[in-house]
Please model this.
Amino acid sequence: MLATVQSAALRGIEAVPVLVEVNSGESGDPRLIMVGLPDAAVKESDDRVFSALANSGYRKPQTRTTINLAPGDLKKEGPMYDLPIALGILASTGQMGSSGRLERFIIAGELSLSGATRPIRGGLAFALEAKNQGKTGVILPMQSAREAALVSDIEVFGVENLDQAKRFLEGEIELTRFERSSAFDSATEIHQLDFEDVKGQDQARRAVEVAVAGGHNFLIIGPPGSGKSMIAKRIPSIMPQPSLEEYIQILQIQSAAGATKHSRAINMRRPFRSPHHTISDVGLLGGGSIPGPGEISLAHNGVLFMDELPEFKRSALEVMRQPLEDGQVSISRAAGKITLPCNFMLVGAMNPCSCGYLGSKQGECGCSPAQVQRYRSRISGPLLDRIDIHVEAPALSIEELRTGRKGETSETIRTRIEGARKIQQLRYQNGPFTMNANMSESAIDTHCTLTPQLGQILQKAMEALTLSARAYNRILKVARTIADLSESNTIELNHLTEAIQYRSLDRRNRT
Ligand SMILES: Nc1ncnc2c1ncn2[C@@H]1O[C@H](COP(=O)(O)OP(=O)(O)OP(=O)(O)O)[C@@H](O)[C@H]1O
Ligand SMILES: [Mg+2]
Ligand SMILES: [Zn+2]
Model:
């Protein structure tokens, strides 16, 4: 008898439909034949499924059984077809009573030998696909169901084991739906690092605030111990809450990367990723044998922090240029390209030279001008051009560290940032972007107009600093953010001059 179960495959971060067809013949050896481009993990499924069936008190097929995963030209990866295959076998061998519910759900899950379900990658994407297809909902391993519950208008059920799934589908038992509210763990207060710990560094603190307010890429330059890492690590504490829509994108990416498989709670926060400088290009961009998101996509709607920026491989910095501009990254694979979102704020930290002490009062710089030049040139001009804000953080003296007053709290700063973000959201409400940093050229023309006098000032500054056309637009966008922070409709002189100051590396490169 033929039975079919709706499942799905993960392609990048999106789900595509896969139909699991199981046909148990009238006769033949009790053998399982799997067709439809299964990879090794899928092929091993028959061992797991047979053992899971036996240990759940069911019969293995007594005749030749063919399993087809359709469409046949899509590669099926990973162990998530165990549960649909086992259910398909139960239905096709007449061991499932009514199977009317079967077709209303997308079903996926790995099975252990005992028949218990194991979490899978992509639960959230499968739920989105179920909604897309107009299905009633999804049936997933318990651990994967929580994230799926963020999707509205579908029913999400988590199952502990094969038996539970089977009896639910027969209508023999009912299960409690996962609700969106129960997906969140509101009780866990996360202790965050706070900006009040950062003493002095007024300029750097202000620059971070501007950067986060407008979503601008940001680079902080300073000698060892000046607090660069300290400042960068406190950025999550001033980032505004993501909207539900933004958070679903964040979680969908994490889920596709397998990062949510074992997490107990869902905290609705923006990601802050800080990969080590030894990371591979694939680790950064995404890809691999089962193509998944890299760090730049895991940082989507949040921050990618690259500490010691010049230490990253040159190739890594080069391949990031395009994704930084586009907000998405394309990964080539045998079966065609996949595109992943990666709209993140880049935060970089670096020393001014290889010994770290150039221009510092704390130590003597031993680098020759050629060494300084070589160190700087590790970050190419085009990458620097894509960073809207550069700021220098001089080291504080021991005395200043000892006697310095506490800074403003993160909460105070975040309140101002949220105000500026609201202004941007209103301004761009019908556009494809929400932050000044992502303004298109025509949006810059519309929203960053300067008086003729200010236009001349900017032009003079551009000439004096020999800035590129890209830098010109970046200055305008940053000026717009500074104006938003002071709730000004127009860009004024002080907004513009502050924005020009944030091109410090352009300046220093020429001295
Ligand atoms: N402005 C500051 N206020 C308070 N503490 C500071 C400040 N600057 C530095 N410190 C102290 O110095 C430590 C080192 O700072 P941090 O690691 O951020 O320096 P860094 O600039 O990243 O240095 P490196 O170039 O060596 O990575 C901090 O953990 C903190 O204890
Ligand atoms: Mg550091
Ligand atoms: Zn030096």
